[in-house]
Design brief:
The protein has 8 helices and 8 strands; from the N terminus they run βββαβααββααβαβαα. It is α/β, with parallel strands linked by helices. It has one domain: Flavin prenyltransferase-like (Rossmann fold), CATH 3.40.50.1950. α1 crosses α7 and α4 packs across α6. The protein is globular, with a radius of gyration of 20 Å. The structure holds flavin mononucleotide. Flavin mononucleotide (FMN) binds next to α2 and α4. The site of flavin mononucleotide has 18 residues, from α2 and α4.
């Protein structure tokens, strides 16, 4: 697929941001579906890769008619044909595809959900398919790599592999929705995690309310300049 280029009013061409979303076989395929939708709505291009485990999770968790072999139908990831124009789904084996190359313009790679197997292989530089290669390239090119692991409890092996990835520069963002936003639906929980992924990628969104200091916290302020209460009370 060709990249989207919008001519900006000042004559400088603006190129759409491009993200790779890798769906591995961890639980939580809904996070990926929502992320892809919101990225496309933001005007970004998305290149998706689904592992064999990822297909099975989409089938069993989301009830989608995912073929376990052969080409992956893009309409299973995104309903809306107008959004799908900016989605490319790559074959898992296609290590010649754009996400495999360090010279390709890719703004970030997200592995969501990330199985412990894919996490281990990426942590150890073992790229056996396009999904793992895209993550490996992101690390070597110092591009943003967001890994959304899902498993519980975690073994020492899992924890060590996450540490390796964090040390290599990845953002390890476990699928751990918080409850301080008072979620009422599964979609609220999904959006909590997807919002944190979008924050990590630097993509604007309005999926969740931003936390601000609760009135019950006892905070005083906002302070005008020169009115720091610690100073005026002689403290501090
Ligand atoms: C419905 C379902 C849920 C799964 N959930 C997880 C999970 O949360 N974490 C995990 O590491 N593996 C999970 N698995 C197992 C992985 O999909 C399996 O280990 C697979 O080989 C991973 O392959 P991949 O890393 O190439 O995607 C799940 C499998 C299925 C079918």
């Amino acid at each position: 697929m060709t990249s989207t280029t919008d001519a900006a009013e000042d004559g400088v061409s603006m190129v759409a941001r491009r993200f790779v979303v890798g769906l591995a076989g961890g639980s939580g395929a809904r996070y990926a579906l929502r992320l892809i939708e919101v990225l496309l709505r933001s005007g970004a291009e998305v290149e998706a890769v689904v592992s064999r485990g990822g297909r099975r999770v989409l089938l069993h968790e989301c009830g989608l008619p995912v073929p376990l072999t052969g080409g992956f139908p893009a309409d299973l990831l995104v309903d809306d044909p107008s959004l799908r124009v900016h989605l490319t789904v790559h074959d898992l084996a296609a290590v010649e595809a754009r996400p495999a190359s360090g010279s390709a313009r890719i703004d970030g790679v997200v592995l969501v959900p990330c199985s412990m197997g894919t996490l281990a292989r990426v942590a150890h530089g073992l790229s056996t398919n396009l999904l793992e290669r895209a993550a490996d390239v992101a690390l070597k090119e110092r591009r943003k790599l967001v890994v959304v692991p899902r498993e519980t409890p975690l073994s020492v092996v899992h924890l060590r592999n996450m540490l390796l990835l964090a040390e290599a520069g990845a953002i390890v963002l476990p699928a751990m929705p918080g409850f301080y936003q008072q979620p009422e639906t599964v979609q609220d929980l999904v959006d909590f995690v997807v919002a944190r992924i979008l924050d990590s990628l630097g993509v604007d969104h309005e999926l969740v309310r931003r936390w601000s200091t609760p009135e019950s916290s006892g905070a005083v302020g906002p302070f005008d300049e020169g009115e720091d209460p610690l100073i005026s009370e002689g403290g501090g």
